[in-house]
From TrEMBL:
This is Proline--tRNA ligase. The lineage of its organism: Archaea, Nitrososphaerota, Nitrososphaeria, Nitrososphaerales, Nitrososphaeraceae. Consists of three domains: the N-terminal catalytic domain, the anticodon-binding domain and the C-terminal extension. It catalyses: tRNA(Pro) + L-proline + ATP = L-prolyl-tRNA(Pro) + AMP + diphosphate. GO terms for molecular function: ATP binding; proline-tRNA ligase activity. InterPro entries: aa-tRNA-synt_IIb, aa-tRNA-synth_II, aa-tRNA-synth_II/BPL/LPL, Anticodon-bd, Anticodon-bd_dom_sf, Pro-tRNA-ligase_IIa, Pro-tRNA-ligase_IIa_arc-type, Pro-tRNA_ligase_II_C. The keyword Transit peptide does not apply. The gene is proS. Transmembrane segments: none annotated. It is an enzyme of class 6 (ligase).
């Protein structure tokens, strides 16, 4: 695994030069660039993922890939080009993506016959093929996942990982014999996402449904996981859609049942993207840079040897022993043996990269038979016996993981507001931000008026409706749902 260590010194400009609380957008961009996660590509709206950023994505991918396979899904591959005729087969779906589609119209200097879309999402492409693969109930369920990229023209408000014109993601597509099976699939995947986002990324989420206005175009309903970023804006962390028969009918995905009759199949689709990396940065990062949860950190423990020339071999040898012992215990460890940097420079470098735990090792530590641990999340230092190396490291990593989730949960709870009036609602959206829980009558007209007035939309209709306010915050009629509004990325 690449450590993602830069080979060039960055000098005094290496650190983050703005505070997270004062200029959130600039802080975020600096963290992405200076921590070595990504860089800007020559084409506007595109980014280059650097090895350290890709290693975080690999951690996320490996966790999900294992869970998908455990629940009977297989991986496949889809081409990136989709004929216009296919994309337009499900009209509502096509209309929803039209403004974002990149089109290929030439091969070399020659015009091609039919326009080809660069894949904004793969429903239509996958389902044209599924129709050929499925003929009988014996072919079901079909459960396929694709690790690929999607391309959507984001020219105006781009932000690395959060909103880019090409992004890494996974998209799952399943086909079932009954609606009940499809609905179970939607919730199974949502549960996998929730576990990964909360217990690995340490980002708490609220789960529920999207409103009909905000649901995936072509879905019967969309379930979502919504996170709250440190600047008070919402971020959609992932979605799982029940497509019903809205695609199986136009694409003729039919099967011969045990009753010897033909039936249209029931379908789902679902996905998360590298936007999760953006969430990690926003939720956990601080004025020094990244703070990575141990569960997904490419390097969990970095060992920094501290020595003068006469002690160099002794200290480096002992540091290498520590690295090896940690690795044998399954801990992702890295010993920074570079001589061209001071130990202080290395401390700043690894803090910026968010490595959860640092071990400082000098001649005096070796003499005393001890190791100094420094936590990235709290900056706390702890000396312990060298013989307890693995146990102490594991214990601290567990504590760091718990602490990051606990802090993020506290922030989320502190920033869920419940206004009593529409004026108070508007004031909260404008001044405090965060999630605003209100009653909603279910009318799209009220939803749209609120969005026009405040720039906030319904992020999620929570599954847990026990605290539903009695009246719609906008029109005052009886509420049908508790709705969480927020401004969002």
């Amino acid at each position: 695994m690449s450590s993602g260590v830069s080979s060039q010194p960055r000098g005094e400009a290496a650190g983050i030069t703005v505070k997270k609380s004062e200029d959130f957008s600039e802080w975020y961009t600096q963290v992405v660039l200076k921590a070595g996660l990504a860089d800007y590509a020559p084409v506007k709206g595109f980014i280059v993922l650097r090895p350290y950023g890709y290693a975080i994505w690999e951690s996320i991918r490996d966790i999900l890939d294992r869970r998908f396979k455990e629940t009977g899904h297989q991986n496949g591959f889809l081409p990136v080009l989709i004929p216009e005729s296919l994309l337009s087969k499900e009209e509502d779906h096509f209309a929803g993506f039209t403004p974002e589609v990149f089109w290929v119209t030439k091969a070399g200097d020659n015009n091609i016959g039919e326009k080809l879309a660069l894949r904004p999402t793969s429903e239509t492409l996958a389902y044209s093929v599924f129709a050929k693969w499925i003929t009988s109930y014996r072919d079901l369920p079909l459960k396929i996942n694709f690790w690929n990229t999607a391309l959507r023209a984001e020219i105006k408000a781009t932000k690395p990982f959060i909103r880019t014109s090409e992004f890494l993601w996974q998209e799952g597509h399943t086909v079932h014999a009954t609606e009940e099976e499809a609905e179970q699939e939607v919730m199974t995947i949502l549960g996998i996402y929730k576990d990964m986002i909360e217990n690995y990324l340490a980002v708490p989420v609220i789960t529920g449904y999207k409103s009909d206005t905000e649901k995936f175009v072509g879905a019967k309903y969309t379930t979502t996981l919504e996170g709250l970023m440190a600047d008070g804006k919402a971020l959609q962390m992932g979605t799982s859609h029940h497509l019903a028969q809205n695609f199986s009918k136009p694409f003729e995905i039919k099967y011969l049942g045990k009753d010897t009759k033909e039936h249209f199949a029931w379908q789902t689709s679902w996905g998360v993207s590298w936007r999760l990396i953006g969430a990690l940065i926003m939720v956990h990062g601080d004025d020094k840079g990244l703070v990575l949860p141990p569960q997904i950190a490419p390097i969990q423990v970095v060992i920094v040897p501290i020595h003068k020339d006469k002690d160099a071999k002794l200290v480096k040898d002992k540091a290498a022993e520590i690295e090896l012992e940690l690795k044998h215990a399954g801990i992702r460890a890295y010993m920074d043996s570079r001589d061209e940097y001071t130990s202080g420079w290395k401390f700043n470098e690894w803090e910026m990269k968010g490595v959860p735990l640092r071990i400082n090792l000098g001649p005096r530590d070796i003499e005393k038979g001890q190791v100094e641990f420094v936590r990235r999340d709290t900056k706390d230092k702890k000396q312990d016996d060298r013989t307890k190396l693995v146990d102490t490291a594991n214990s601290l990593l567990v504590e760091i993981q718990k602490n990051l989730l606990s802090k993020a949960r506290a922030f989320l709870q502190e920033n869920i507001s419940r206004p009593a009036s529409y004026d108070e609602f508007k004031s909260i959206i404008e001044n405090k931000g965060g999630f605003v829980m209100v009653g909603w009558c279910g009318q799209e007209e009220c939803e749209e008026k609120i969005k026009q007035d405040t720039g906030a939309d319904i992020r999620v209709l929570p599954f847990d409706q026990k605290d539903r306010p009695g009246k719609c915050i906008y029109c005052g009629q009886d509420s049908k749902k508790a709705a969480i509004f927020a401004r969002a990325y």
